[in-house]
Amino acid sequence: MKRSLFLLSSLLLLVACKKESAEPTTPTPEGFTTADVLNDFANHVAQDNYRDLAALSSGLQERIVAFGTSLSDADLTLCKQQWRDTRLSWERSEALLFGPVATENIDPRIDTWPVNFVDLEAQLSSGNLFTPAYITSLEDALKGFHPIEYLLFGANGDKTAAQFTTREIEYITALAADLVNLTGSLDQRWDPATANNYTTAFTTAGSGSTEYPTQRAAFEELVNAMAGICDEVANGKMGEVLLAQDPSMEESPFAKNSIIDFTNNIRGVENVYLGRYDADGNGMENFVRQHDLLLDNMIKQQLASSIIALGTITVPFGQAIIEQPVQVQQAIDAINLLATTLNDELMPLVQQHID
Amino acid sequence: MNAGMPRPQPSRWIIVLVCVLALTSCRKEPETWSASEEHPWASGGSQTVFDAGAGAFSHGFPQMSATADILHGIGDLQFEQTFVSAPAPVNPGLGPVFNSVSCTSCHIGDGRGKPPTAGEQPISMLFRLSVPGTDAFGGPAPAPGFGGQLQPRAIFGARPEAEVTLAWSEETVTLPDGEVVHLRMPHVSFNNPYTALPAGMLWSARVAPPVFGLGLLEAIAASDIRMKADEGDVNDDGISGKVNEVWDRVQHRTAVGRFGWKAEQPTLLQQSAAAYNEDMGVTNPLFMLESTHGQPQYDGLNDDGELTDSVLHAVAFYVRTLAVPARRNTDDPQVVRGEELFSAAKCDRCHTPEQHTAVNVAFPPVSNQRISPYSDLLLHDMGAALSDNRPTFRAEGTEWRTPPLWGIGLTQVVNGHQNFLHDGRARSLLEAVLWHGGEAQESANAVRSMTTAERQALLAFLGSL
Residue B15's pLDDT is what? Predict the structure, then answer.
C-alpha cells in the first residue's frame, strides 16, 4: 500500500512538468483536417440549407399562385403546409446568422416580428398596386414570413378559402414573390460561382479570406452562431414571453408553429455541429471527438435533451406559457445549458487547438 | 479505544512533500508589467472580449454581476424590437415618419452603417437637417416642417418627408510610390419632399456608428477630456482639439459632448432616447414630443410617451455594457512596425491610444480601466473636403469628433463592408486616411509619402485594432 503511494507520488512528480505533446498536424489520424470541417460546413450545411430555402420559397410562391386561381380549400391547405416546410428550412438556417443574411439586411426583411397590423389592413383597403418595387419599398413589418402567415392562416389559425378577399390574394402573391427574391439572393451569395461569395470566406479561412484571417476565427464564428441562437431561443423567443405571460408576444402564433420553430433552431445547431445536412460530412463533431470524447458526448446529449424538452410542450406556445409553464421553463433551462456548454467548453477547446 | 497519540509516520510526510513539490514545481515567476506594454490586446481593459467573428461587437461586459448581465439581456432584446403603427398589442408608436423600425436595423451587429447603393433608400444612414441659427439650448435650429433630421420613411397614411438621391463623383489620386487610389465624393439631393424644403436648409449625412465600448467612453472623466483640449493650439503643434458643450436634458445644463459624429450627445441615455424619438418616432421620457410635433404630419394621438422609462434605461444599459473586442496579431512584426508609423505620422495626437476611466464606485464594471479607444473625444478641424457646413453646438462645419478606432479591423466580418467616415464615402481604411484634411493634413501627407511597405504596415496595424 505504502509502496504504491510512493510510486504514485513519484509518477505525479514526473508527469507534472510534462508539456502537452505537439498537436498532430494535418491530416489527423481520423483522416480529416480542420479545413475539411470548414469546407463541409460551407459547401454542404450552409449552401444546401440556403438552396433548400430558396427552392421551398419558390414552391410556396407556386402554390400561392395556384391557390389564387382555384381559391379551393385543398390548395389553401397545400399553401399552409408549404409555408411550414419553408419555415422549417429558414429556422434551421438561423443557426448560421452571419455573413450575407446579416450584413445585407436580409434577416429583417424575411423574418420581422411583430406584424404591423394597422398598416397591413390599411394596405389591403387601399388601392395601391402591389408591384415588386412597391413591395420592396415597404417596411420590414409588412413583408416576409409573418405577414404571409397571418394572411394564410388568419388571426385564429382557421382561415378558409372563402374568407380570402381579392386584395389579400394580390398582396400575398406579391409577398411570396418578394420572399423568393430575398431567399434567392441568399442562395446566390453562398454559391461558389458568385463573385465574393461567402462559401469562399470559409473555405479560404486562414489562407486569404477577408472575413476570417485564421481558421480559428472561422471556427469561433460557428461556435458563436450556435451558442447565439440557443440564447435567442431560450431567453428571447421563449423566456421573454414566459416572463411577460403575454401570448401576444409569441412569434408564429397564427400557424401555431412556434414550438416547431424552436425545435428547428436547435436542429440547425445540430446540423452545424455534426457537419450534416442531407449528407453527413466532417463537422465540429470530428474535431471535438479528437480531443475530448466526453465533451462530444455531453453536447450531443444536451442537443437531444433540448429537443426532448421542447417535445414535452403539448399545446401551442402562446397557450403553454400559461398552461404548461413548468415544461416551458424546463426547455429554456435545457437550451441554456447547451448554450453554456458551447460557450464555456467548446469555445476554449477551439481556441486551444486551432490556430 | 486508542488512548495514545498516533505516532507520526515519516512516509506520510514524504508523500505530502512530494505532492507539494509536484504542484509547485512548474510555477512560473509572475511577469513584471510595465505600464506602456501591458496587454496591448486588451482594448477595453478588463471588459475586453475575444471574438473576431460576426458577433464581435455584441458581447456584454465579461466582468459584471449576474444581475447586470440580466439587465443587459433585457436591453439586448429591446434593442432588437421592431416598432409598428399604433395601436398595436406589441411595440406600438412607430412614426408617423421614421428612419428605421428598430435599433438593430441601423446598428446591424452593433456595428457600422453604410450609405445606400444605387437605387436604394438609405437604411443605416440618415441626414440631419437645420436652418442657420440655434435653438433654445444652443443646438442646431430645426428645419421648419422637417425638424432635426430627414425621415425618408412613413407609416401608412403619412408621406416620407423626402426621397434621398445619392450620386458619387470620383477623383483619382496617385501616391508617390505609384499606388493609385480612387476617392469618391457624395452628391446628395432631396427629391419629392412632402412640403417645400426651407430656404437655406443645412444638412449633414451620418452613417450609424458602432455602439460597443461606449460605456467605457462615458466613464472617462469630463476633466480628462477637457485637459486634452487645446483650443488655441497653445503648444503650437498644429493640432487643437475642442470640447463640444451640449445640452443635457436630464441635468438641465450644458455638459461635455461625447457621442455622435459631432459629439452632440452627453450621455448614452440621451443618445438612446434621441434615437428612439428621431429615428423611429417613438416618444419617451426624455423626448415626450413626437418628432413631427408642430409639423403637418403630427399624429395628434394622446399616446406619448410610447416607450416606458424602464425600457429606455434597459436599452441605454445594454449599450453601456457592450464589451470591446480584443486586438489580434499584436506581436506580428508588421503590426508593430505599423504602430510605430501611426505614431510617427502623428495620427496618435487625436486618435489617442490610451485613456483611463474614472473611479466609479456606483458602477464598478467601468471603474478605473485602462482602455485603448484611439480617440480623444474632441472636435478637430478636418478640412473643407469633409465639411458639412452645419454647426452643431460648438462644432463648426469642418469640425468632427475623433471617432474611436477600436474594433475597426472587424468591420468587414461584422458588417460586410469597409465604408468609413461620417457619410461612409471611404471604401477602405486607406481612403479614409487620405480624406483627412485640416489639422490632420500633415498626418495624411505623411501617409501619402510612405513607402508601399510602410503603408501596408500602417494598414496592418489598423486592421489589428
Answer: 65
